[in-house]
Specification:
Layout (H helix, E strand, L loop, with lengths): L2 E4 L7 E3 L15 H8 L2 E5 L7 E3 L2 H8 L4 E2 L28 H10 L4 H5 L2 H17 L4 E2 H6 L1 H11 L6 H11 L6 H24 L5 H10 L5 H32 L1 H8 L4 H15 L6 E5 L3 E3 L2 E3 L4 E4 L1 H4 L34 H18 L4 E2 L21 E3 L1
Parallel strand pairs: 1-3, 4-10
Antiparallel strand pairs: 1-2, 3-4, 5-7, 6-12, 7-10, 8-9, 11-12
The chain binds protoporphyrin IX containing FE.
């Protein structure tokens, strides 16, 4: 079976296949993907620009290709399947580079994201979450959970870790939102990227002159020692700032909505004081929701034989983790949210050398949030019907723009 992935700027990515009704549950992959997965592990699709990359729908082949040494993440290579005309502009540091450059840059910051280091931040994350819930409870209702809670939690945490003033959150949140919007024009994306780049470059300059105990100061020290250029440092800052707040914020809001739609699952989480259950629920919600729904994008550097097909050198590859994480061969009854299942093999953080650097931090944030919010506000409820909630079908990161809640 072949299909077309419609990715015209501003439109939702919905593969269309003959005979498949395009009815969409907001937490499920687009309807055509299941049929495609059943028909085989990989096929070709047509993108907005007429290109025909490979589309890999099964978990095993996704992992094999994500960890394949002859598969490149370099967005500037011919054949790379870009999301929109705007997606190629503005370097987002090592996430779009190959080794050895990727490894050189990643190594410079990975010490800040080890499990041990991040576990040390758990009490601070708990304090941030508790304070924000105190403010929620003291304020008016209904309230938008995205604005009042989901965005501030990871923004406060990443600001603290990097040494970025939280007072600037409106500025960096707005520009990040523009950069990851699928409908953005190349011009608007370049402007937003330029603003964030200048902002981070300015901060690196400040840390050079007046170092503090934060990650940007450590990055600035590498610039001073000649290990890193100022441009590389600022680009890395942009990547860490965007990746550090947008993703987790979407998981908090969308995860809450998914749980409100599945009250029995929410009750399990709310009524348990077992940290293992909470940690398992985080993995299951990551698997089930797949907020990085545009899929991992790559291009083959050499011919690669896989699952009876040959991906030729220079051909693009898309690995949509949303359907990879709903592979029934790995996760039985995959469309069911089940916080007690073992979901640890999910690919929501990617796989291979680009696997999410911030995953230990994201896990701690989500464990604290999911383990606290519903216990402290047991009557939490959506304040509008689900049909009125605006979903980010047009974003490279999926979620909700707003989530009005009450209690
Ligand atoms: C629930 C939250 C998160 C999700 C679902 C998520 C997802 C992902 C995914 C799928 C990738 C792989 C990209 C690829 O292979 O092309 C990635 C990479 C990355 N993530 Fe996350 N992420 C999250 C939170 C964070 C946080 C809190 C940070 C902190 C700064 C972060 C920093 C990064 C970085 C720097 C990379 C690039 C790694 C590399 O290329 O070596 N992420 N993330």
């Amino acid at each position: 079976m072949t299909g077309t992935v419609h990715e015209t700027a501003g439109q939702e990515q919905v593969p269309q296949f003959p005979g498949v009704r395009a009815v969409r549950c907001p937490f499920d992959p687009p309807p055509g993907l299941r049929a495609l997965q059943e028909s085989g592990p990989l096929t070709k699709v047509r993108l907005w620009d007429g290109s025909t990359p490979w589309f890999v729908t099964r978990h095993a082949e996704q992992k094999a290709l994500l960890s394949h040494p002859k598969v490149s993440a370099d967005v500037t290579r011919p054949g790379y399947p870009i999301h929109t005309p705007a997606a190629g502009g503005g370097s987002l540091s090592f996430i779009l580079m190959d080794d050895p450059e990727h490894a050189r840059l990643r190594r410079m910051v990975q010490g800040a994201f080890t499990v041990r280091r991040v576990e040390g931040m758990r009490p601070a994350v708990q304090r941030i979450v508790d304070d924000l819930i105190d403010e929620l409870l003291a304020g008016p209702k209904p309230v938008d959970l995205v604005e009042a809670f989901a965005l501030p939690v990871p923004s406060l945490v990443i600001c603290e870790l990097l040494g970025v003033p939280y007072a600037d959150h409106g500025f960096f949140q707005d520009n990040s939102k523009t950069i990851i919007k699928r409908s953005v024009t190349p011009e608007d994306r370049a402007v937003a990227f330029g603003r964030l780049y200048e902002y981070l470059d300015g901060l690196v300059g400040e840390k050079l002159a007046d170092p503090a105990d934060d990650l940007l100061s450590k990055v600035a020290a590498r610039v001073r020692d000649g290990e890193l250029t100022r441009q590389e440092a600022a680009q890395m800052g942009v990547l860490l700032l965007i990746a550090g707040h947008e993703t987790t914020a979407n998981m908090i809001a969308l995860g809450t909505l998914a749980l409100l739609q599945n009250p029995a699952q929410l009750a399990l989480l709310r009524d348990s004081d077992d940290p293992k259950l909470v940690a398992g629920a985080v993995e299951e919600l990551l698997r089930y929701l797949n907020i990085t729904h545009s899929g991992r994008r790559r291009v083959a550097l050499e011919d690669i034989e896989i699952a009876g097909q040959v991906i030729r050198a220079g051909e693009g590859i898309i690995m949509p983790n949303d359907i990879g994480n709903r592979d029934p061969g790995v996760f039985p009854d995959p469309d069911r949210l089940d916080v007690r299942r073992d979901a640890r093999r999910h690919v929501a953080f990617g796989f291979g050398v680009h696997q999410c650097l911030g995953q230990p931090l994201a896990r701690v944030e989500l464990q604290v949030v999911y383990g606290t919010l519903y216990r402290r506000i047991p009557t939490l409820a959506a304040a509008v019907p689900i049909e009125e909630i605006p979903f980010k079908h047009d974003g490279q990161v999926y979620g909700v723009y707003e989530l009005p809640v009450t209690w």
